[in-house]
Amino acid sequence: MNIFLLILGMAAVTYIPRVIPVLLVEKLRFGVKTERFLSLIPYTAMTALVFPGVLTMDGTNIWIGIAGAVTAMVLSWKKAPIMLIILGAVVAVMLAYLLL
Q: Which regions span the lipid bilayer (predicted)?
């Protein structure tokens, strides 16, 4: 019984901080500049998470990670579907491993 209560408590502690912002953001109205700024946060966070991995993907050859990143950027710029971008980057990395 103690373990069950512990699991319920941990679930509540995890769930409450995630729900509160969702409930509050719907009621708040922001200016145009603030909305634009907030809309760019996911892209910035994704870049901050992915970029170090690009540079440290292969310790011996940095160009392998760069090949995948450049491929993904070009496909994104051409407005390709996300699955095509991912597959294109994977294929570019595989080719870079074979060629470099």
A: 6-25, 82-99
